[in-house]
Fold Tyrosinase copper-binding domain-containing protein.
Amino acid sequence: MATAATALPSELSLTRRQTCTSPQPRKSWAQATSAEKQSYLNAVLCLATKPSKLSVPTHSTLYDDFGYVHAQLSNPQKIHFEPSFLPWHRYFLQVYESALHSCGYTGIAMYWDWVADSSAPAQAAVFDPVLGFGGNGNDTTDNGGLPRIQNGPLRNLRPTYWNREVQPHWLSRDSAPGYPEFGVIEMFGYNYNQQVVDEVMAETVYDDFRRQLESRPHAAVHGGVGGGRGDMGLQDASPNDPLFFLHHAQVDRLWWIWQQQDPSTRTNAYNGFREDGQGPAATLDDVLPMLGLAPDGVVRDYMDVKGGTLCYTY
C-alpha cells in the first residue's frame, strides 16, 4: 500500500480536515537549499519515467498527463477567464506535489517570486543551469523549429504535446528579449513588478482581483518566459515546462496574501460568472475537474490553505 509520502495523484486524499495544526510553509526557489532543489529536480525528471494515469494512447508518462489535462480543460475554457481559475490551479498544484512525492520528493511545493526578480528576470535562481530549470532556448535542427533549452537538468525532457497537438519535442523556451537602451526589461518584467502587483492587490472584490491577477502579471510571466514558440508561452500545454508550477505557486501565494488582508471576508470570497462571463453564476459547489488524473474537486475545499483538504502556508 502506498504511504502518504509516495501516494500517486489518483490516490490523493480528499478527506476534509477537522483542523490544520501544523501547516507546512512553502518557500521560494531562491530560499531553498541545494539539497532541496536537487531533490525537487530529480523528482521532476522521475515523472517522465512513471506510467500515465490516463487512458490516452498518444502518451505514456505521468509527466505528460499534466500538460494533457491542462490542455483539454483549456478548450473549451473551463479553467481560465472564469472564477475557478484560482481554486482549480491551487488544486492542480496539490496534485503535482503529490506526484513529486511519488517520485521520492519529501518537501512541499515551491514558488518563483517573480515580483522580486522583475527588474532582471533572466538572473533569477530558477534559471540556474545547475540547480535550476535551465535558461532560454536556441533554435536547433532537431526540434521542429522550436527553441530547445540548452542547459540545466531538464534539457532532455521531451513533452508529447505542442499546444493541443501531438508533437513530441524537446522542452522549449523563447523568452522575450530586453532592450536596455530603451529601458525595456527582458521577459516583460515591467508587467509583474511591485507596482503592478500592488494595483492588482488593491482590488476588493474576488472576481475583479482574479481578472487582474490572471490577465496582467500571470499572463505576462507566461508570455515573457515562453514567448511564441516556448512551452510556457502556450496556455494549453504550458505545464510541459516544469517552471509552470513554481509560477502558479506564486500566483497562489498572491491570492493567499490577498485573502489574508481580510480573512473573515476573503477566505471564502468567490463570485463571478462561469464560461468567461457567459455562463451561470459561480458557486462554492462548482466542480474542479481533473479528468482522471485525480478525483474531481469542489471549489469550497480549495479556498482556505489551512482548511478543507489543504494544510500549508506561505
User: Anything to note?
Assistant: Helices lie at 34-47, 62-72, 85-102, 194-201, 206-226, 243-260, 263-266. Confidence is low (pLDDT under 50) at residues 1-14.
